[in-house]
Write a structure and sequence with these properties.
By secondary structure, the chain is α+β, with helices and mostly antiparallel strands. Helix content is 34%, strand content 23%. A seven-stranded antiparallel beta sheet has the order 2-1-3-4-5-6-7. A two-stranded parallel ribbon has the order 8-9. β1 and β2 form a beta hairpin. The radius of gyration is 27 Å and the shape is globular.
């Protein structure tokens, strides 16, 4: 009995059209992603800027106008007018008479689920934080997100003490979080039951940020003296 042998075809030749097609599709998809990103980026940036401006008005009560400042190499503040973003920006608010209502500062840190980004308002004359707003959060809905909604927690930031020592070089007391119901001092942040980790994270973020920014802003109040 004679065996019939099958001669294999050239597999390299047969798969080349498929490989070329897959590469072409991949390149096309990548190009579409880049074009979509580039096309939507201006709108995304505009919406972020609008959201930030609304947040500034919320954390600085009585504000009708704002101005952006950047920390310079001499640890002073200089007004900036371009749209570039850096980590050394702060936002001054002014009332109808052009008087300073406070300075808004961004801060961030690790929460329970992801990084938390917040904005808080500081009033040099009162030496206190007068407002707070969550810019970005992925905390658990119904639990961790209470740092954005809980009325008692938000009350912490109506007059949170960040007063300075006699030489104005540092805080008298660092802002710290405490368990719900244990707040005894005006520099403490009363936590939220059921959102302990998230509310503690906010306290730690503010503690670190205010230690850095408050002495600088207070020492350079004249840089924010007018909205003009």
């Amino acid at each position: 009995m004679t065996e019939t042998q099958t001669i294999p075809q050239n597999t390299n030749t047969s798969i080349m059209p498929m490989l070329r097609a897959m590469v072409g599709i991949g390149v096309l998809c990548a190009l579409l992603i880049v074009l979509t990103f580039e096309g939507t980026l201006p709108r995304i940036e505009r919406l972020k800027a609008e959201a930030l401006e609304k947040a500034i008005f919320r954390v600085l009560p009585g504000t009708v106008a704002t101005k952006t400042f950047q920390l310079d190499q001499n640890n002073g503040f200089t007004a900036v007018y371009d749209k570039g973003r850096t980590e050394s920006l702060v936002f001054a608010g002014y009332d109808q008479e052009g008087q300073l209502t406070g300075v808004a500062v961004e801060a961030s840190g690790q929460g329970y689920a992801d990084v938390l980004r917040i904005l808080y308002g500081y009033h040099p004359g009162k030496q206190s934080i007068i407002g707070y707003y969550v810019l970005e959060s992925k905390e658990t809905p119904g639990l961790g997100d209470r740092i954005e909604k809980d009325a008692d927690f938000l009350a912490n930031f109506e007059a949170l003490d960040v007063s300075l020592t006699d030489d104005f070089s540092e805080l008298n007391n660092v802002v710290v979080p405490v368990k719900h119901g244990n707040k005894e001092h005006p520099w403490q942040i009363d936590g939220v039951t059921g959102a302990t980790i998230s509310s503690r994270a906010i306290g730690n973020i503010l503690g670190a940020s205010t230690q850095y920014w408050v002495p600088l802003i207070y020492d350079n109040q004249q840089d924010f003296s007018s909205e003009d």
